[in-house]
Design brief:
The structure is a homodimer of 207-residue chains. Chain A is α/β, with parallel strands linked by helices and 207 residues long. Chain A is built from 7 helices and 6 strands. In chain A, the strands form 2 sheets. The first copy, chain A, has a 4-stranded parallel sheet. In chain A, strands 1-2 form a two-stranded antiparallel ribbon.
Chain lengths: 207, 207
């Protein structure tokens, strides 16, 4: 629906909000009217915070995670295990893995996965820099934590081949039944994988 | 959950988005990461549009609708019927009524309804200015189009008494069964009102 508002200023603001993912024109209008009801200084703070973020944010030159500094807080934390690397697709996945509190090593953010359909090849990702990090030595294990999709698998295999010449253990996160998931509703491929990759019951309490 | 991100810039932006109605921290993070994936100029445009809106938006000095100019586009449109006023709660309701394309008069935006529970009295609303508009003459009908709530009814009655001394027809929008609504699921009070306020069948095709 090409709804027009009586105000061009309002129209522009609604258009900007409606560009965001999952925000339609109705929601956009609601958000803009909410901002209009706030103090002018509140709305300025909102706008300026976003401008400041996009101007000043950096990417860590080691792991490529977003950061306020040249080297991110994780890479510069001496208490973390620098011999273990977790390879993830994007910034979001670093947060997701951090929230599990099960990983204490460092990250490597690829910036996506290999996807010929979207025109994304290995050269578009931070794979070369991953190989360089491993080649520099000191890394004992690389954990592949990409999505369990065809693109993720392709990327896993590509990285596996690239790292094969080095003396490094390459592992992949477990695929199986979700915790809390009922067997009846688990798809057959996942269930099959969970049987193949079964673990010792006594080991399953760890972590 | 008091989730902390590795970047203060990111944290601030997420906090700002999470202040918006219906946007939680997870959605806020998704929106911020989306903006980060755009060109820097896109994010600046987003921020600046909002700042510009809140700095430059005006309220029409006649009807109190939001406007880019001192008198809004509706009030300054000579093709509209200046003898009919539609009284609404807020800016949003002007848009809703406009979208019906059934009203061709002018508006009067109260800025809310009388609500003692929220500390909103008649003096906090644009009721005095409504009385002045009617007192100035030239207005034949005032349509009350407030919400069908207790607060809306209180406000309707207050305005009705304030306008009683003037030679003006005061009407209220019809309450009844929704178009497309099934009788079985209509509440009894609404159904009762729809029977009391029944209209001539031959009149029901109008508009």
């Amino acid at each position: 629906m090409d709804q027009q508002y009586s105000s061009v200023l309002l129209e522009n603001a609604v258009n900007e909000f409606a560009k965001l993912p999952g925000i339609g024109r109705k929601t956009a209008l609601r958000l803009v009217l909410h901002l209009l009801r706030q103090e002018e200084s509140e709305a300025e703070k909102f706008g300026n915070t976003i401008i400041k973020l996009c101007r000043e944010i950096k990417h860590c030159h080691v792991c490529h995670n977003i950061s306020d500094t040249d080297t991110c807080a994780i890479c510069s934390d001496p208490s973390r295990d620098a011999s273990t690397l977790c390879v993830v697709e994007n910034v979001k996945e670093v947060m997701v893995v951090e929230n599990t509190r099960q990983f204490h090593g460092l990250y490597h953010v690829l910036g996506g996965v290999i996807s010929p359909m979207d025109g994304i090849g290995p050269a578009d990702l931070e794979i070369e820099s991953l190989v360089e990090r491993v080649a520099a030595g000191g890394i004992k294990e690389v954990i592949l934590a990409l999505s369990a999709t065809m693109e993720g698998d392709t990327t896993n295999f590509y990285i596996f081949r690239k790292l094969a010449p080095f003396d490094v253990k390459i592992t992949i996160i477990a695929r199986g039944v979700s915790v809390g998931g009922e067997l009846e509703y688990t798809d057959e491929i996942t269930l099959g994988r969970s049987i193949l990759n079964r673990t010792l019951f006594s080991e399953s309490f760890k972590g």
